[in-house]
Design brief:
The chain has 415 residues and is mainly beta. The protein folds into two domains: 84 residues, membrane protein fhac (Ubiquitin-like (UB roll), Roll), CATH 3.10.20.310; 222 residues, Porin, CATH 2.40.160. The protein contains five helices and 19 strands.
Amino acid sequence: MRLAHALLALAALATTAFCNQDPETNVNSRYTVESAELPQRAEKRVSPTLKADVQKLVGEKFNQEIVDRLTRQMKKELRGFRVAQKVAKGTKPEHVRVLWEAIRTNPAQDLVLPRLVYSSKQNFTFGADADFDIDGNVFHAGILTDNDETLERYSGVRGGYRRVAAGGKFRGGFVVESYRAQWSNAVESALNNQSEVPGIYRTRLHVQPEVQVEVLPGVWIGAGISIQRMQFQFPAARYQDSHALISSLRFERRWAGSTPAKHGVEAGYSLRAATTSLGSDFSFTRHFFDARYFFRFSGEQVSAAFRGGVLSGTAPLYDRFVLGNSTTLRGYNKFDVAPLGGNRVAHGSLDYRHKWFRAVYDVGAVWSRGGESKVLHSLAAGVTTGLKRDSLSLLVAFPLREGRAEPIFIVGMNF
């Protein structure tokens, strides 16, 4: 009996010692959380509270209990997904990255609105895609009519497939697009006065397979091929091909400071090289670079963006650079800036948002090699429903120049 009492006392003592041990003796507690990343496909489905709790992990010591609690909450909010947590080595010593993966358990579909913009100078741009997710295999189909991004209004259908593998570090797939083009009188008139730029086309069919690999945290390298066939109208109806090798380098990073402020950096470089060895009727090299930094604090956000590009050789009108739309030189009409675009471009912008107020300053120039480059400025201001780029905004934009300035009204999202 005495032996039994002694054993019980020893067990109680051991239990007390274990429960009262210093948390720092946990082997994982010595690591600092470098970043906490939600699944890309699920980021818009989880609550703001859960997002905030996930970001609170950054900069703190790793705590398995807190991570498990967040994982359980994520499973409740992501119905139809299988959620798994993962801890990976960070870029700094004694640091770790906390990641979550979300895999659909049942086939599902989502409707996505990639673009919705109205401009008083360039009318409507609208696009919608439906994604069908079957065990990580995503098939998508959509419609689009765009009079904002390029010199043409292109309208038609598109579809494709993408697959994410290797814990989210590999992306692969392809897109297929078929569009009919409509052209402004300003473009057709400008083409009559020169012979260096290829003419207008009636239809455009595009197929692009591509793979992307995350080589470092937030750093992606991509490669693929762009296969394009266009039906030209003048001087006679004919088909011409523009086949190009494509490559890209992309960096994205989000982090929180010592205060509730949030920072983000996005930067990328892309190359399109079309050669006759690929069976292309066009031969050109197109370099494009873009970068964006944003700082968000409470109900305010400031972002700065830059883009630049150089085009060498002869490329179809679709590949020429354009300024003067809903995302660049917002106070100008693109056909007044350069009706045929250019093979050189540089543009910068500052975007300030405070709760419902938004103001944007743009500066940029687009020109052709050997020609004169004229730097233009514009200012836009209005209201918005939020700080993110997919928030709905209504802006009134003015060119900053001498003389009469006619305002341009822009309303929509994702611009």
